[in-house]
Design a protein that fits this description.
The chain folds into 3 domains: 54 residues, no CATH class; 125 residues, 2-Layer Sandwich (Potassium Channel Kv1.1, Chain A); 144 residues, no CATH class. It contains 12 helices and 11 strands. Helix 5 packs across helix 6, helix 6 packs antiparallel against helix 7 and helix 8 packs antiparallel against helix 9. The N terminus is likely disordered.
């Protein structure tokens, strides 16, 4: 049997090397390629035309670290100048194009010089702070920006990430930090925030006196609303141990603390919370007494100009699943008669 000359396999003109050695494979024409022209498993050729090279994750990490420190932090070799919040960033278009928002801005902004200049107007986005925007910008270069997210800036980072787009991991991380930041001490600011974002569900948790505008938070807006509502209705009574009114070991003044918090809650949220079947603070009578005490406190604050009342229904089916029902009626302004 005659031997077939040995051939050196190559990919795009390069010899195939394994651990630094040239690979010589003897093959016959009928075993190197199948009838469809694809290489056989024993062929030194690869289907995409490239030899498989050793993969080292450290190399990629070094590249990303270099991009973040030399590219983002110092702005070396920048080709794009970004203006936002009276701050100027020297950045790189190829990196910024990862953000759909910035990619659109770059493609639609007129250029008058060799270096691209773009302006980001955040006057209509008060939730996007300078710190939050900077962290989101840095994330376009490297995930190391995640280390800068704290409970104090998580919401601003989430807002910036949602605005820029293309950074789902950052948004999810910031959203988780937002959820974890909800506590007895921080529920006040979260309630104020809740009244500024729209509701996609008719759960009665939006204040009718304030018409919320479209939210930069996108899908996270309703998720945050649901989280705040759950914390207010379920977690807060448990933390303050109001769910066990007969327990002498309950947190001192836990009920009073809960009263103070609910006295600042927007009406529709207050109504939905107290009427919710998951608001467990004892019997229906205990819930009725709690609502009555809250309304008394609200008269001197958030409920000025309105008359709020609570009713305890006897029997079932009066108000759906709740025996406690809260209503509100706006007081009519007095009419003054002007004598001619």
């Amino acid at each position: 049997m005659s031997s077939v000359p040995s051939t050196s396999g190559s990919a795009n003109g390069q010899a195939v090397h394994t651990n630094g050695n040239s690979t010589h494979v003897e093959h016959t024409p009928d075993t190197s390629f199948d009838t469809n022209g694809a290489s056989s498993p024993s062929s030194p050729y690869h289907s995409n035309g490239y030899a498989q090279l050793p993969y080292t994750n450290n190399h990629n990490e070094e590249i990303v670290s270099h991009l973040y420190h030399s590219g983002f932090q110092t702005g070396n070799y920048s080709d794009t100048v970004l203006h936002v919040h009276q701050h100027v960033y020297r950045l790189h278009a190829i990196i910024l194009s990862r953000s759909p928002y910035l990619a659109h801005l770059m493609s639609t902004s007129p250029q008058t010089s060799g270096q691209r200049v773009i302006f980001v107007n955040l006057e209509q986005e008060p939730e996007v702070t300078q710190e939050g925007f900077a962290i989101a910008l840095g994330y376009l270069y490297s995930a190391i920006s995640l280390n800068l997210i704290r409970p104090e800036n998580a919401r601003a980072v989430l807002a910036a990430g949602c605005l820029l787009g293309g950074m789902d991991d950052l948004c999810q991380y910031a959203y988780s930090a937002c959820r974890q930041s909800m506590s007895v001490e921080t529920i006040g600011p979260w309630l104020e925030f809740m009244d500024t974002i729209p509701s996609s569900a008719s759960d009665g948790s939006a204040t009718p006196d304030i018409a919320p505008t479209s939210s930069v938070f996108g899908q996270y807006a309703q998720r945050l609303r649901d989280d705040i509502f759950h914390f207010l209705v379920v977690t807060l009574p448990e933390v303050l141990e109001v769910t066990r009114p007969q327990d002498t070991s309950s947190v001192p003044n836990g009920r009073d603390h809960l009263l103070q918090i609910y006295s600042r809650v927007p009406f529709e949220l207050f109504k939905s919370a107290v009427e919710s079947p998951t608001f467990l603070i004892g019997t229906d009578q205990a819930r009725f007494k709690f609502a009555k005490d809250v309304i008394e406190l609200r008269k001197r604050g958030i409920a000025r100009g309105a008359e709020e009342t609570v009713v305890l229904a006897f029997g079932q089916g009066n108000f759906g699943n709740s025996a406690v029902h809260i209503t509100r009626k706006l007081r009519k302004r007095p009419l003054w008669k002007v004598n001619s």
